[in-house]
């Protein structure tokens, strides 16, 4: 019997398991497939709270706090696992192709600036000094020098190694088929490899968290939102910075790939790449960087973002079920939010206090 059982071996489950173990708790982590084999390896790895969140509030605060944790988090994992995670916090640009887009972006720039964030408003010429491959069509945009990206697949690999070194019991290829309850308290799970018992069970099963809650007749709204995404070769296309526009984003990675994304479409749990999806992703980014027309295509893939009904993650206890918590629903930002999720969930498990989780508690969806 472990102190903690974490269900789901994506970026969230791995990060939470690692943090709990560092704090001296015994931890078992269960994954039905391969470590990080779902949304977490499908992601583009961008760390971009100022781009992602449309207004001030708890999501932006959470995202900014997580971004601040990243350099130390990445360094620690690199040291523990002896592997580079290719963190790059060298800035990104969000660009407008016309006056209407420019007005919208400018409004965002103003509140971000007033709130003290590190952002600059640049015209097209100034943006092309930051990123010479930007199209002449770009008229203006926001430069955010402190945001960036990471190689999420390397990060996942490092987390698995770090968990192993830390002593987390890692069970992959093990499907959770039921939640075990005794006298109104969750005591673990039933799996295809037999029962697993723990004092505290944390569901971190991504897009499947809603299904898992149904095992207790709880209607917590988590649904899969497919992202179709592609990679091209950076040979001959020496991009310097991440570029966002209304119809797509372009992320030059350190491994010689340029990752281009992504659709947001709902097809249940299907994660195939469709021709329509691929066409919209590729056509979406050409107006920003015309040089991409000549890029060599490498691969395309799909993943299922775990989306909640209000767009905010689910962090903390499941009311009415002692011993059970959720860590999920991170939608487009699970890579960004992994270090802060691990920290806040471990704080909660250690102290039983939920005051720093208030905006994200699962209770908001339950009567
Ligand atoms: C195309 C795309 C691009 C993205 N880009 C970014 C980005 O740039 N930046 C960013 O921050 N985020 C990005 N995201 C979002 C990010 O990938 C997700 O928010 C994050 O991966 C969610 O992590 P997770 O661990 O909750 O889910 P997952 O990675 O899906 O992990 C959940 C795990 O639970 C397991 N599981 C489910 N049911 C069971 C069961 N019954 N028994 C055992 N195991 C089970 C699954 O097999 C899975 O491995 C992107 C997502 C997509 C799809």
From TrEMBL:
Protein name: glycine oxidase
UniProt pathway annotation: Cofactor biosynthesis; thiamine diphosphate biosynthesis
Catalytic activity: glycine + O2 + H2O = glyoxylate + H2O2 + NH4(+)
Taxonomic lineage: Bacteria, Bacillati, Bacillota, Bacilli, Bacillales
A UniProt-annotated Pfam family: DAO
UniProt gene name: thiO
Coiled-coil intervals: none
This protein's UniProt keywords: Oxidoreductase, Thiamine biosynthesis
Domain FAD dependent oxidoreductase per the UniProt entry, residue ranges: 3-347
InterPro entries the UniProt entry points to: FAD-dep_OxRdtase, FAD/NAD-bd_sf, Gly_oxidase_ThiO
Listed GO MF terms: glycine oxidase activity
Record has Oxidoreductase as a keyword: yes
């Amino acid at each position: 019997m472990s102190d903690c059982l974490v269900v789901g071996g994506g970026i969230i489950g791995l990060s939470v398991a690692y943090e709990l173990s560092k704090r001296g708790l015994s931890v078992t982590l269960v994954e039905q497939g391969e470590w990080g084999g779902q949304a977490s390896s499908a992601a583009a790895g961008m760390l971009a709270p100022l781009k992602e969140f449309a207004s001030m509030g708890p999501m932006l605060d959470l995202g900014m706090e997580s971004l601040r944790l990243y350099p130390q988090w990445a360094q620690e994992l690199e040291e523990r696992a002896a592997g580079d995670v290719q963190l790059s916090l060298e800035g990104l640009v969000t660009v407008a192709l016309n006056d209407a887009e420019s007005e919208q972006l400018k409004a965002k720039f103003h509140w971000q600036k007033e709130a003290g964030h590190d952002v600059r408003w640049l015209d097209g010429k100034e943006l092309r000094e930051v990123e010479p491959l930007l199209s002449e069509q770009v008229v203006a945009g926001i430069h955010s020098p402190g945001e960036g990206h990471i190689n999420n697949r390397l990060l996942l690999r490092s987390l698995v190694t770090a968990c192993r070194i830390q002593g987390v019991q890692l069970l992959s290829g093990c499907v959770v088929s039921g939640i075990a309850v005794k006298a109104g308290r969750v005591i673990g799970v039933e799996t295809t490899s037999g029962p697993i018992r723990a004092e505290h069970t944390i569901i971190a099963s991504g897009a499947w968290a809603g299904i898992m809650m149904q095992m207790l007749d709880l209607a917590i709204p988590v649904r899969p939102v497919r992202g179709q995404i592609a990679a091209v070769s950076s040979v001959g296309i020496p991009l310097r910075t991440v570029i966002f526009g209304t119809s797509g984003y372009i992320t030059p990675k350190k491994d010689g790939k340029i990752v281009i994304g992504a659709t947001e479409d709902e097809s249940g749990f299907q994660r195939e790449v469709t021709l329509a999806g691929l066409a919209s992703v590729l056509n979406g980014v050409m107006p920003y960087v015309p040089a991409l027309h000549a890029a060599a295509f490498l691969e395309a893939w799909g993943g299922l973002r775990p989306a909640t009904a209000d767009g905010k993650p689910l962090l903390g206890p499941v009311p009415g079920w002692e011993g059970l918590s959720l860590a999920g629903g991170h939608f487009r930002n699970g890579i960004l939010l992994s270090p802060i999720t691990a920290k806040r969930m471990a704080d909660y498990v250690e102290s039983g206090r939920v005051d720093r989780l208030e905006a994200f508690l699962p209770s908001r969806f339950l009567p």
